[in-house]
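Structure, all two chains, one model.
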Amino acid sequence: MSTSTIVFENVSKFYGEVLGVNRVHLSIPSGITSLVGPNGSGKTTLMNLVTGLLQPTEGRVRVLGISPGNPEKLFRRLGYCTQYDAFPKGATGRSFITSYLRFHGMDDSRGKELAERALERVGLVDAASRKVAGYSKGMRQRIKLAQATAHEPDVLVLDEPLNGLDPMARAEMIALFQELAQAGRHLIISSHILHEVDLISDQVILLNEGYVVAEGNIQGVRSEMDDRPLQIMIRCDNPAVLASRVFGLDSVVEARIHDDGGGLLVSTKDPGRFFLMLNKVVLDCNLKIEAVSPADDDVHAVYQYLIGNEGEKP
Amino acid sequence: MNQLWLRQITAVARLEVVKNLFALRAAPLYLLAAMPIFVVGLLYVAMTFGEGPSELETAGGTALFFAILYQFILRFVIYIGCVWIFMNLFRGEVLDRSLHYYFLSPIRREVLVVGKFVSGWLTAVLLFLGSTLVTMFLLYANLMRGPELGQLMSYAGVTVLACLGYGAVFLVIGLFLRNPIVPALLIWLWEQINPFLPALLKKISVIFYLQSMLPLRVKDGPFAVIADPVPAWLAVPGLLAFTALVLVAAGMRIRHMEIAYGSD
C-alpha cells in the first residue's frame, strides 16, 4: 500500500438504494487534483470518503497509507475544508482555530502561534476576534480554509474552496494552493469554475452520475478521446487563403475563420498528418503564422465532450 | 496529564461546558435548576409569615426536604435536565450541522464520546448539585448541624450519581435514535411506576439504585411493592459499571456514524 498517494480501491458508496459513487479506482499523487462534475456527480461523496465522514459500502480508501477510520492518525496529516456552512455556536475566528488545534494535543502557546499563522495566510487577522456568525460568506470560507490548513497538513481536501470569495481573494487563494502543491502536498479540490480548474490543476478527475469518466492530466485525457476531432487554432496573416487550402485535406473535418478574422479554427481527426500538411501549405502560400495551439484541450471542452450539456452549468 | 487522550478529553470538555452553560439552548436548564429554589422560597415565606410553629424548625424540615429532593429534584428536575443536556450533546450538533468539526479532528471517536459525556456530567452537576445545595440551605439552614450535615453529603452524592446514570442513558439514546423525545417519555413513565413494579423489574432503573443511597427510607404509598434496597456499596459501583457499559455502546455506535445532515 503506497504511503505517498491517496488510493481508492474499487470503492462504491450507496445511500440506501441511491448511488453515491460506483467502482472507483483512483491513485492520486501529490499536486493539485481537481474533481469536476455536475451537481450530484459524486464529488463531495469522494471527499467525504477520503476524510472518513462517510464509509464505503464496498472497497477501501487509504490516505498516505492511513485508513480514514483512524482519525487520530489521519487528521494529523489531513485538513478538510467542507462545504457545510455551519460553525460551533459562539465561536470567534480565532477560537474556532485554537480549539481545533487543542484537539491535536498542542499547548495554548503553540496553538496560538499556528492559529495566527493560519489567520495571516487567509488575511483574517483583523477580524479574528469577531464572532464567526457575523462574518460574510467570503470570510466564513476563508476561516474554514485557515482551520483546515492551521496544522500544516500534507493533504488538503477542499470542497468548493473559492465559493463566495471576491476576485482578489480568489487570486490569493489560488496562489496559496499552488504554493502548497509546489511544496509537495496533495490538494484535492472540487470546483464549479472550469477556467480556474484549468489554471491550477495538475490533474483532473471527471465525474458523472457516480462514475469516474476520465482522470489524469487534462491534455492526456483529451488526446485519448480519439473519437472527437481535435480543434486547432491557427493565428496567421491570411486565414481565408489558409482555409481554402486546408479545406480540401482528407484529415480536416471542419475549418472556420475565427470571429475576429485573425485566425482559422480547424477540426482534424488526424493531427499528425494535418501538421505535416500545414507546413507545406504555409510554405506554398507564404503565410505568416503567429501561433498554432490546441483549442479544445482544456477542462471545459473535455467536460463538454464527456459529460455534455450539463457542463455548461455544472 | 501527559496522555494525549486525557488532554483531548479535557479540550472537548472545556469547549462543551462553555457551550452547554452559555448558549441560548441552556436557558431552560437555568429555569429547571431554579425551580426547587423557587418552590422552597415560597414555602419559606409561607411558613415564616404563617401562624404556628414553623415546620422548618422541627424534624419535619428534614422530611420535607427529603420529599422535595426525591419527588421533585431527582424525579423531575434532574431527569428533565439530563434529557436536555445529554441528548443534545450529539443530537444538537447534528441539528446545528457542526458535528463534522469533531469528526475531522485527530480524536478517536470513543474519546470524543467520553469528552462529551464528561462535559454533560459537569454541566449537570454544576447546575443541579448547586440547585440542591441552595435548596437545602434555604430549607433548613438552622438545622445544618449534627446528622443533617451527614445527610447533606448523601444528597450531594445522590445528585452527582443521578446526573451520571441518567446522563449515560440519554447520551446513548441521543446517539441511537433520531427522535429521542418518545423514549425519554417512556423511560420517565417507567421510572415513575418503579415503586409498583415487581422486585426484579425494579432493578432495571436508575431511581431504584439512587433510593438505596438516600438517607431516609422512601415511602411510596400503600400500593408500592416492597423490595429490599441494594446496599450502597453495591449500588454505587453498579451505577458506575452501568455508565461505563453505556459509554462502550455509545463508542461502538459513533465509530460507524456518518455525517449525513441532509437526512436529519
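The radius of gyration of chain B is 20 Å.
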